[in-house]
Fold each of these.
Amino acid sequence: MGISRLTTINFHNELRRAGAHSTHGWRRLLFLAQRYLLGTVGLVIMVLFVWMAISADLICRYDPLSVDSAQRLAAPSMLHWMGTDSFGRDVWSRIIHGARISLAVGIGATALGSSIGVIVGLASGYLSGWVDLLFQRVTDILQALPLLVLALVMTAALGPSLPNVIIAIAIPLIPTVARVIRANTLALRELPFVEAAKSIGMSETRIAFRHVLPNTLAPLIVLATAQLGSTILTEASLSFLGLGIPEPYPSWGRMLSESAAEYVRTAPWLVIFPGVAISLAVFGTNLFGDALRDILDPRQRG
């Protein structure tokens, strides 16, 4: 009976500790949300777009590719919340499904470009010597052209398709990530914990990936979040110029290119709603990226 009672008391104590940790975690989240209000707004916008992209088939009443000539250029109404385009396609459905394209390109290009940039920057900063010289000259060549110009060249060479657009946007992101990772690696490799790892016979590869790389993740997360908005904007720009996602798949940039010149006066909703979607997506990622930078920067903590 004594052992059973002691076990029950220990169980209740563990529950209290878990409840206390949970309460502390929620209080900290609430404190961060109040302190970084604009970052919280950006996070809410990002979560909203992700939810819309995932639930597009459930929250849309119409197929974004279906054409209805009888409803051509219909103004926003209860039947079509954001009106229809010149082919009678529902703009609301195309905006929601376009979020899938924009997020797929943004997340895919950011992940691919960041992954390659991390490898290049880590090898360049840690190995130094001729490896650093070679990688830095390659990154200098890539950085000589602006993001959009290099993406235009790559897309024109590869052709308009979803995988090609992701690759075309990811390649210009590599130099920026590589530079940041290299700078952090150069500082980290001189610290005592690296020397201690070498003294016990740990291999250079293991030191680089197990000890140096994890300490570069904070600036990498901030940079990747900031670049997410740039990739979404670049994809919209490529689609606007006819080099992005091909028809008939809905893309915010292509929706603008089809209607900006011809229907801006007669059907302004064809320009307003895709423009607002692009602006909100970029605005949300930038706000969240700025707040994340302040949270992860030790000099900003108080």
Note: The chain has two domains: 1-35, 42-300.
Amino acid sequence: MLYKLYSFIIALPLFCVATIITALIVIIAALCGDRTYTCYYLPRLWSRVTLWLFLIPVHVEGRENVDKSQSYVFLANHQGYFDIFLLYGYLGHNFKWMMKEYLKALPFAGLACQASGQIFVGESRSSIQNALEQADKTLRKGMSMVIFPEGTRSEDGEMVPFKRGAFTLASQINLPITPITINGSFKVFNRHAWSVTRHPLRLTIHPAITPEERQGLPTKQLMQQTFDIIHNDLDVNA
């Protein structure tokens, strides 16, 4: 009860203020032509501050599997809202998001995401194709991409089958696929919750699947292999 009071009275108002300030600075930076540094490092700080405000412990494993000079397609399971803060704050690699189109409507944050060059994808075939083309251009400039291949947040903490788009993108641009497992986010703030619960978060960055390792591998088999890597480290009770 004390934590709930703290989160509503102190953490949430401070989070809202920090979000507005961060979004405004990102928009201004993007309009000035900086979509790479300010538009990544400031949201990274905002994410860490958010987790600190809500008193959420974070543990990261596998940072040695990421080369900062290499571009990747990062694929993670999607347990809840705090996945965003965990990845932005602790992945340790500059990237753009592929996110649902309806998120454009978020106050301040939606405009900041559009200004900073995040990739939005809708449900139509044309929207998906357009998103893949934009992502292709972004990745060819040396940026990495984070995608939730399930396409939506988990209903119960468990994973659902992956969608094909992320794997098509990684194959056509010939980049390593790095699987990521997120644990604990479902208990912190899932799609059915109305408030934040204090619970540890764990981010596990697995070794990349290189283009050479997946050469000749059917897409369905690659999808299953990636799913298994992420799922094998998933603990819905963690």
Note: Residues 89 and 155 are 24 Å apart (CA to CA).
Amino acid sequence: MSIQHPPGSIVGLPKFSAPTDFAESPLSQALKQPVLLGLFLPIQAGGWTQSTLERSTDWSFDYNKALTLKAEELGFDLVFALSQWLPKGGYGGVFNGQALDSFTTTAALAGLTKKIILISTMHVLYGPWHPLHLAKFGATLDHITGGRWGINVVTGHRAVEHEMFGWPRIEHDRRYELAAEFLEVVQRLWSDNENFSFEGESSWKLGGGFVTPKPHFGRPILVNATGSDAGIAFAGRYSDIVFITSPTGADINSALQSLPAHTKRVKDAASDVGRTVRTLLNPMVICRPTDKEAWELADRIVAHGDQRSPQGFSSLNSDAHAWKGRDPQDPYRFVGGNIRVIGSPESVVDQFLKLKAAGIDGLQLSFFDFRDELEFFGTDVLPLMKQAGLRH
């Protein structure tokens, strides 16, 4: 069997089952929560905060394993981390390039966890990946975890990363066309009960591919991170969860003004093709017993801001649309996160309530000092979230 279609065309291809089509799937169970709760693991040097202020945050597997097990103990729904391919020195300063791979890290966590959903961030267009590889590896992890594994599909936005694999950076929208083709084939391999062949626009081909075991709940969970028109259209077609940023920067007040229209746009892209998606946002949470103490910590982080990497994660010729609303002169840019949520436990929960009202379905949390602040979050913030109706 062979399918062929025009470049970028996905019209008329089969509709695949999603984990949300099965009431007993781990994703469906997690979505019973009023707000999804995740942890953005710091598997890269510097975590998410561009500051030299002392902290425990570390990129090692043992550190991130401990965070994951603590998050599971606290009842968090999911964890994932970034994926990056950087030259020597990374972005500079605390972001020195030391990092684990997201796929192998979450795969290693599969046998160590029991309930929490594990998402692997993967650049599906880079060098070694073939749809048959990913379909087989993904189906295997789906079985190891009982349906708790998924992919955060990313296409790469830095020229240097594409160049590492031997070609110039692929044009922005073209990346999503190729990723769509990739996922169509992977989903056929997850669902088809016969050998499947394919020849399309990509450099790879598939001749009589077949994958066992089949995933438990239609397919593994699909996530993607995006802010562009092409990326949002892709998310509407394929994703269960869309990892978004604030179009107007990391200040909470500015974000709350722009997020209602942005989240509606993302969800409309899915409803236009008969699907439903959930939005996930990454707050950097700076929480202390009082507002004053929290802001004092934020100011200390800024005072130790690492100037050796002036552009931080936007370095190395990025063409990502999601970060265009960032103010390069914002003094609190050193704190990190898609948005900043700073204050006492009561203030943090109030800001979470406002984010939910703005159309945010999930919070993928980052911290400055992950170990100690996750512990504090569990004892002082999570009970207030339950009282406020954000968690069961």
Note: The mean pLDDT is 92.
